[in-house]
């Protein structure tokens, strides 16, 4: 029966062409949009994780309550031991301390007095240890536009706009003025090793990067860290995985009113990322729904046209005694075949384009010159296992729904007047 | 005690050494205070304010003081020595702890510089930096730079009476009459016979309480009444405030003029 129906479809192109193209195009767009949204979501997750949040972050409870201010007077102490314990307790993850701080960068004139000053947002990470992943995570190697990476203690990187404003060049000297963990004034001289362009205005205007040991020395934070960031290393970010680790850590720590007690936060619990990630989920659902609805309408219409064209055929079949239900089911079976063929074609095309954009990305840096939030300069799609199957939802549902609605006309045919209709 | 710098500059003169021109260590000459005492209750609020300003004794002094900062994490004490000339010149060198030792600050009028031996740099403190905490204390550089006489920038009204440190005090509410003040409103508890401020509350333009000062001890030194211990609190900040203690004051000190120069910071 299936073979019979399939032959009918193949031999009568007008019966298959429009539904097939509709399904194929709809599935193509669905698969591509799904991969694009997944890619954008993944990039924002990883971009924020690398720069700010980690997949997980340990900080003090006091610091977590005021995370935007990043108060170093509430920093974690005993950071080395804590990092060692985290690596041992949670296999498949990597942990590293960081310090964020605010301050001023003061550039001296020939007499050693203030020539220019600028506000800075400092990020201190392990950038001097050979092979440190922090250089990749912070994206500093590929962002350098002048000079080089810091190679020894006492060297810093500064944002491009900040460097221009303070007239700082690689090799130039500047004094960092900030506050120690205890609130005292912290000052130290640094040499500018390089100038970086992140493409994010906030960072280019105020960004300063230095090695964490330098920051610990200047800020009187020996063996202390503002935060310890963790990343999953045995797979991509996965909400359930990181939430499980955070729950285990926080359960072990137990409830405590001590504002210096450590607490672990997941990526979603930081920087309002939960709302953003939830929006991505909502958009994915909306895209699927829209395509199912639109394709169903088109296929319903195609079904109606087909029914008109096949009015005589259906009439003969009914006149020969084929039950209305049998005719209706055979049309649904044809729809399934068209749906499968269209879905496969659309999925192949959608995956092909998604794989291409996964490798090459779309450059959006031109739209981000004045961006206040941190987003990657290239948006890439991401092909996930679900992308191979996601197209079947709109592809099959729309053909079935469209045909089912259009096919209701079969039940409205009156068998008593079939021969009269066929005579005309 | 950064405050010492500037305020100490205004110390006995203006009245407040480490915490604000008029607050901490308002200096009152005992004899002077004693003579004034009998008729003070009848003085108008503005006249009381002028009396407080009058307690600012021009001249030079050398002072050693300690500032204990009770932060969220711990308490630490910073000792300093200040050389003060009138209201506008002050030079302070930090003596302890080791991390702060050798840091110097110079105030000349409304300008402030700091020198740190670790960088061998003289850095001007201005703009937003003036709002930053001095050494992690509850005091800001802006507080420290305050040196105008209250009678020229505030209008005073009576706001009650209370006893503080077993001394009868008049409470005055001071409302700013000029726009460029750090605190729009202050409430001060004034010892009515010595014209010493024993307690103070500082409010912002919104009416929100920002900082408080409680004098803990008053002593007579060289015939002058001085607040020698006080607790200063930034109420918007966690912690138990910053204690100021004056360990010694030499009112007759001769201070070389060369000390009040940027060149002296590096010496």
Explain the overall architecture.
The complex is a heterodimer of chains A (424) and B (267). Chain A is an alpha+beta fold. In chain A, 52% of the residues lie in helices and 20% in strands. Chain A has 16 helices and 14 strands. In chain A, strand 7 and strand 8 form a beta hairpin. The longest helix of chain A has 41 residues, at 13-53. The mean pLDDT of chain A is 84. By secondary structure, chain B is α+β, with helices and mostly antiparallel strands. In chain B, strands 1, 2, 3, 4, 5, 6, 7, 8, 9, 10, 11, 12, 13 and 14 form a 14-stranded antiparallel sheet that branches. Classes of the chains: A alpha+beta (424), B alpha+beta (267). The A-B interface holds A 62, 73-74, 104, 106, 108, 112-114, 117, 119, 175, 177, 179-185, 187-189, 220, 259-260 and B 69, 71-74, 76, 78, 99-100, 103, 114, 116, 118-124, 127-129, 132-133, 135-137, 262.
List the helices and strands and how they pair.
The complex is a heterodimer of chains A (424) and B (267).
Chain A: H1 2-11, H2 13-53, E1 56-60, H3 61-65, E2 76-77, H4 79-89, E3 93-108, E4 114-125, H5 134-138, H6 140-143, E5 144-147, E6 155-159, H7 160-166, E7 173-179, E8 185-196, H8 201-206, E9 207-211, H9 212-218, E10 224-225, E11 227-232, H10 239-253, E12 262-266, H11 273-309, H12 311-319, H13 324-360, E13 362-363, E14 378-379, H14 387-390, H15 392-406, H16 418-423
Chain B: H1 2-14, E1 28-29, H2 30-36, H3 45-54, E2 60-70, E3 75-85, E4 89-96, E5 104-108, E6 111-116, E7 121-124, H4 141-145, H5 150-153, E8 154-164, E9 167-176, E10 185-191, E11 197-203, E12 209-221, E13 224-234, E14 241-250, H6 262-265
What is the assembly state of the chains in this entry? heterodimer
Question: How many helical stretches of chain B?
Answer: 6
The figure for the number of domains of chain A is 2
Q: Give the rounded overall mean pLDDT of chain B.
A: 80
Radius of gyration of chain B: 17 Å
CATH topology of chain B: outer membrane lipoprotein receptor (LolB), chain A
Shape of chain A: elongated
For the record, the CATH architecture of chain B stands as Clam
Question: What is the element string of chain A, with H for helices and E for strands?
Answer: HHEHEHEEHHEEHEEHEHEEHEHHHEEHHH
Structural class determined from secondary elements of chain B: alpha+beta
Helix content of chain B: 10-25%
The counted number of beta strands of chain B is 14
What is the beta-strand fraction of chain A? Answer: 15-25%
Largest sheet of chain A, in brief, is:
6 strands, mixed, barrel
Write the CATH homologous superfamily of chain B.
Answer: Lipoprotein localisation LolA/LolB/LppX
The low-pLDDT segments of chain B are 1-39
The end-to-end distance of chain A, rounded to whole angstroms, is 31 Å
Q: Helical element count of chain A? A: 16
* Percentage of residues in strands of chain B: 35-45%
């Amino acid at each position: 029966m299936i073979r019979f129906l399939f032959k009918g479809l193949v031999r009568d192109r007008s019966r298959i062409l429009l539904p097939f193209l509709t399904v194929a195009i709809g599935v193509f767009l669905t698969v591509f949009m799904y991969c694009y949204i997944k890619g954008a979501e993944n990039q924002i997750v990883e971009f924020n994780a690398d720069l700010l949040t980690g997949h997980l972050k340990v900080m003090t409870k006091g610091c977590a309550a005021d995370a935007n201010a990043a108060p170093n007077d509430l920093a974690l102490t005993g950071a080395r031991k804590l990092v060692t314990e985290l690596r041992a307790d949670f296999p498949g993850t990597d942990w590293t301390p960081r310090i964020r701080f605010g301050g001023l960068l003061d550039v001296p004139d020939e007499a050693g007095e203030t020539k220019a000053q600028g506000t800075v947002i400092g990020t201190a990470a392990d950038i001097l240890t050979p092979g440190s992943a922090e250089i990749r995570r912070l994206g500093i190697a590929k962002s350098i536009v002048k000079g080089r990476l810091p190679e020894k203690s006492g060297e810093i990187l500064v944002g491009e706009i900040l460097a221009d404003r303070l007239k700082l060049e690689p090799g130039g000297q500047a004094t960092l003025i900030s506050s120690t963990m205890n609130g005292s004034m912290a000052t130290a001289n640094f040499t500018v090793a390089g100038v970086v362009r992140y493409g994010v205005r906030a960072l280019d205007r105020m960004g300063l990067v230095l090695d964490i040991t330098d920051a610990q020395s200047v800020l009187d934070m020996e063996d202390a860290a503002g935060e310890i960031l963790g990343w999953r290393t045995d797979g991509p970010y996965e909400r359930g995985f990181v939430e499980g680790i955070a729950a285990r850590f926080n359960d072990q720590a137990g409830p405590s009113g001590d504002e210096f007690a450590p607490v672990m936060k997941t990526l979603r619990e930081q920087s309002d990322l939960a709302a953003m990630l939830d929006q991505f989920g909502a958009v994915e659902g909306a895209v699927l729904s829209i395509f199912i609805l639109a394709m169903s309408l088109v296929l319903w219409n195609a079904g109606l046209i087909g029914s008109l064209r096949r009015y005589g055929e259906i009439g003969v079949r009914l006149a020969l005694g084929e039950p209305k239900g049998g005719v209706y089911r055979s049309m649904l079976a044809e729809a399934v075949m068209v749906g499968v063929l269209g879905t496969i074609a659309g999925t192949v095309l959608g995956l092909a384009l998604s794989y291409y954009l996964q490798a090459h990305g779309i450059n959006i840096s031109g739209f981000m010159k004045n961006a206040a939030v941190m987003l990657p300069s290239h948006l890439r799609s991401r092909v996930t296992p679900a992308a191979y199957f996601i197209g079947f939802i709109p592809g099959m549902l729309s053909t079935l729904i469209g045909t089912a609605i259009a096919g209701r006309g079969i039940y409205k045919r009156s068998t008593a007047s079939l021969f009269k209709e066929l005579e005309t | 005690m950064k405050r010492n710098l500037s305020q100490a500059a205004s110390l006995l003169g203006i009245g407040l050494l480490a915490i604000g021109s008029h607050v901490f260590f308002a200096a009152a000459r005992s004899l002077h205070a004693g003579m004034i005492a009998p008729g003070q209750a009848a003085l108008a609020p503005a006249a009381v304010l002028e009396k407080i300003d009058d307690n600012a004794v021009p001249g030079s002094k050398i002072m050693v003081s300690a500032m204990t900062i009770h932060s969220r994490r711990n308490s630490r004490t910073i000792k300093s020595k200040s050389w003060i000339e009138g209201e506008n010149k002050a030079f302070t060198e930090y003596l302890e702890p080791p991390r702060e030792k050798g840091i110097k600050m110079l105030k000349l009028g409304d300008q402030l510089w700091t020198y740190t031996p670790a960088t061998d740099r003289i850095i001007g403190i201005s703009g937003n930096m003036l709002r930053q905490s001095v050494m992690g204390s509850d005091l800001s550089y802006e507080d420290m730079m305050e040196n105008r006489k209250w009678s020229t920038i505030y209008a005073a009204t009576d706001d009650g009476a209370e006893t503080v440190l077993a001394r009868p005090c008049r409470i005055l509410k001071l409302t700013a009459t000029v726009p460029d003040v750090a605190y729009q409103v202050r409430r001060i508890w004034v010892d009515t016979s010595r014209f010493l401020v024993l307690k103070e509350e500082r409010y912002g333009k919104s009416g929100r309480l920002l900082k408080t000062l409680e004098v803990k001890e008053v002593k007579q030194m060289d015939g002058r009444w001085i607040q020698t211990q006080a607790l200063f609190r930034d109420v918007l900040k966690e912690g138990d405030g910053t204690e100021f203690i004056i360990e010694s004051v030499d009112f007759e000190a001769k201070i070389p003029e060369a000390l009040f120069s940027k060149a002296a910071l590096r010496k």
